[in-house]
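Q:
My hope is that you can spare some time for a protein that puzzles me. I hope you can help me see how the letters and the C-alpha cells relate. Thank you; the sequence and its C-alpha cells follow:
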Amino acid sequence: FRRAHTLTVLFILTCALGYVTLLEETPQDTAYNTKRGIVASILVFLCFGVTQAKDGPFSRPHPAYWRFWLCVSVVYELFLIFILFQTVQDGRQFMKYIDPHLGVPLPERDYGGNCLIYDPGNETDPFHNIWDKLDGFVPAHFFGWYLKTLMIRDWWMCMIISVMFEFLEYSLEHQLPNFSECWWDHWIMDVILCNGLGIYCGMKTLSWLSLKTYKWQGLWNIPTYKGKMKRIVFQFTPYSWVKFEWKPASSLRRWLAVCGIIFVFLLAELNTFYLKFVLWMPPEHYLVLLRLVFFVNVGGVAMREIYDFMDDPKFHKKLGQQAWLVAAITATEFLIVVKYDPYTLTLSLPFYITQCWTLGIILVLTWTAWRFFIRDITLRYKEIRRQKQEHRHEKDKCLSNGDGHSPILDEQNGNKLRERKL
C-alpha cells in the first residue's frame, strides 16, 4: 500500500510539473530554467523520500515530518559537496543564484573595542556599550540553547559546551573579528544570561515532559472542543519520553563517545561563523537562519540515535542514518572552510593560547589514563590483595582451633587409630 501510494503521488506530481511546463512557453533564460529544473528535481526527491525513507526514532508530530528532514539532509550534503568542488570565486558567485545580494565581501562586526560597562565620558548615555551589544543575537542565543538542551538533555554537558565555546572565541579572535567580545559580553551576557537561562528553561521543560501523563486517545473520541484543541497541540509533543543518562565516567567507550559529541557540537558552532565568513553571507541572512532551523530538527534525531546506540549496542547494532548524515555535513562544512580560506585557519595561535590548550589537553589525557587505566589496575590489585588476605585468614583459622592443634590432623589420626584396632 505504501509503495502504491508513493507511485501515485509521484505520478501526480510529475504530471502536474509536466502540465505546467507544457502550458507556458519555456523562457530563453538559461539561468532561470536551470534553477527551476533543480527545484523541481529536489521536490520530486523529497516527495519520494518522505514516503519511502526509513523511519527514525521519533513519531510525533508524524513520522513523515522526520523523513522529510532526513531527505533535506541528503540534499544539503549534496549541495555542500557541489560547493566543495568549485573554485573559491565560482563558489562565492554561485550564491548569487540563491540570492542576488550575495557574492559581495562583507566586513565582520567587532564586538570588542570599548568594554566599559559605565562610560562616564558619554554623558548622554553612559550605558551605550551595553545597548550596542543587545542585538538580534541575544534572543538567538537564548532560544538556541533552549533547543540544544532539549536535544542533549543533560545540564553538565550543555554547560561544558557553552563554556568551551567561549574559550574557543577567546582563542580564535585573531582569525575572526566577530569573536572579539568584551569580558562581560562573554561571561555575563552569553554564558550566564542567554545560555544559562536557555539551559535552565530547557531543563524545566524536560522535567515537565518527563512527568507529564500522555493520554493519546483519538481526536474524535474527545467530547469537548477544548479537549480537541488540546489534543491537536499535544500532537506536537513527544509520544513518549526518554531521559538521557550519558554517564561519561562509567566506561572508556562512553567517555570517548561523549567527548566526540562535544567536539562535533563545537565544530558545528564554529562552522556557522566560518561559513558565513568564507561565503560572504551576512549574519542576519535568511540562509544562516535556515541552517540553524535545519540543525535543530536533524540534531534532535541524531542525538537520540547516538544515545540509543550507546545505551543498548546489542539492539542498535549500527549508528542511525541521521547521525551519520549530521557527522558528514559537519565534516563537509569544515572542508569547505579549509579550502576557501586556508590562510585564516593557518594563522598561528598566540603563545599563551597554545600553552593553555596544551595544558588542558594534558589534563584531560591524564585524567583519562588515571580513570580508565591506572585507577582500574590499582583497584584490581587492591581487590586481589584483599581476597588473598581473607583466604589466608580463613585458612589459618581453619587449621588452628586455638591450642596449636589442627582439627584436620586430629581427625586423620583418629581414623588411623580406629583402623589399627579393627
Q: What stands out?
A: The chain has a mean pLDDT of 79. The two ends are 92 Å apart (CA to CA). Residues 351-399 form the longest helix (49 residues).
